[in-house]
Each structure stands twice: as C-alpha cells, then as structure tokens.
Amino acid sequence: MSASIIAITNQKGGVGKTTTAAALLALLARRGARVLGVDLDPQGSLGFSLGLDIEHCVTIYDVFRGEVEPEQAISHTETCDILPSNILLSGAELEFNRPGREFLLKKALSRLEAKYDYIIVDTPPALGLLTVNAYVAADSLIIPMAPEVLSLLGVSQIKETIEGVRNYYNSRLQVLGILLNRYNARFNLNREVLELAGQIAAQLGTRVFEAKIRGSVATAEAPAQGQSVVDYAPRATTTLDFEALCDEVAGRRSPAADRKGGDN
Q1: For a 10 Å CB count at each end of the chain, is N or C smaller?
Q2: Dihedral of CA 105/111/112/118: which sign?
Q3: Cβ atoms 84, 39 nearer than 8 A
Q4: What is the pLDDT of residues 100-148, one digit of tens each?
C-alpha cells in the first residue's frame, strides 16, 4: 500500500507552512505512522526546524540532478525521516528545463512511497516549478493561511495552478482543506477572514478545517531548538490545535495498529 502524499502549500510566505508540516510529521509519527518529510523550499526550513545541518547533507537537489538515489538522500531525525533541501535548490527553475521536469518529485517518491504511511511535502512561497512538482506528486493539499486579507489573495490565486495540474498532470489531486493559522476569534478581522476563507474553500471544492491554530510564543521558539512545536511545547494551545487538525486529516486510527491487523 502506497503512502498518502500531502503537500502543504500557499504562495504567500509567513503563513505557517513549515510549522504545519513539522507538526503533522511529529504527530503522525507519534501515532505509529511511518512518515517522510520532503522539503521543497530552498530556504530549507523544514529540515532546519527538525534539527538537521542542511548545509552539510545530501538533499533533494542532488536527487533531481541524478547524482544520488532518493534513498541515499534521506536524513533521519528524532521526529521522522526527511528529504532535506538547501539554497542550491533555488536554481531549479532555470536548471531543470528538460521535458518532464514537472515529474521530478513524483519519480523520486515512487521509489520511496511503499515504505511510508504518509509523506508530507513543504513547498516554497511561489507557484513555480517546485510547487507544481509537489502538486503533481501529491494526492492532496492543505492550504495554510494567516487571518489577513493578503493571505486570502494568495489562496485565491492557487486555484488556477491546481486546475492546470489536474487538467494536465494529476487528475486525482484534491484539496483537503484551508487551515487558519495564528487565529484569534476575539478579533473582528479574524472572523471576517474566516467567512471569506469559507467562500474560497467552496470555490476550491473543499472546506475550512474545524481546527484553527492559535498563535503562541512556542511556535516561534521551537525551530531554534530543532523541534516541531508539538514536541517542544506538548501542552501549548498550539499543540492541542494541531492534534485536532491531525484527527481531521488522518482520523484517530493508529497506522501501526492497522499494519499489525493486516498481517493477521
């Protein structure tokens, strides 16, 4: 059985993509799932946030260049396995210009997906080649956004890219939902953005997740400690919110128990 591949995406930066990816990886691993994180952002934030020295390890860039096999590029952290990236990936748009370049990630993950239950892909804040690769490889998308009007604009612009990928490369691609990060229901703007997000979700044929991620100091502190926020601050309100999101994404089942049951 192949992994469920989920891309975390929004062309706007600062909306919590990496925080969301790291939290889901940690929570799914805690539930017994075999998980792989894939960092497609040249800033390398996902690997860094989970404690990797991203400047001195083999990366997804080396895989795309054909210099190493995907298995050789996997780094192991206390949380999960990671296919990391670093600034070398920033030249991908110009360097990888051969036919079929939209399938670089799909080809790499085809070698790995049978070994995992979930593969979580962290995408860059752009709708270029790297993000298209994520959409082509993924089964589904989670779209985090901040409760700001400009963040809403970013979400609405994703629609065209999703439709293009569905039409030409990956007809099964679905949007699991829009996720509100740094949400505070006491603020009028937050409530207004929630309503507008619902309208955009309807256009995308999806929903706004019931789970809303509240902000916390721990969210900013965790990456410096090489940990996801759920490991760094297990009792924080942010962690509780991410646990609720994980329930919505994966249900309350234990993948490890499912595998054991399947062996009987």
Answers
A1: C
A2: positive
A3: yes
A4: 999 999 999 999 999 999 999 999 998 899 999 999 999 999 999 988 8
b/e burial code for range 96-113 (CB count within 10 A of at least 16 → b): beeeeebbbbbebbeebb
Locus of tokens 């690769």: 133
Distance (Å, rounded) from C-alpha 137 to C-alpha 94? 20
Joined together, the tokens standing for residue 27 give 């929570």
Q: How far apart are CA 107 and CA 64, in angstroms?
A: 9
174-207 core/surface letters (b: 16 or more CB in 10 A; e: else): ebbbbbbbbbeeeeeebeebbeebeebbeebebe
pLDDT digits (tens, 9 = 90+) for 43-61: 999 999 999 999 999 999 9
Helix (H) or strand (E) holding 176: strand 174-180
Q: Is 209 helix (H, G, I), strand (E, B) or coil?
A: coil
The pTM is what? 0.92
The closest alpha carbon to 59, from 27, 28, 37, 34, belongs to: 37
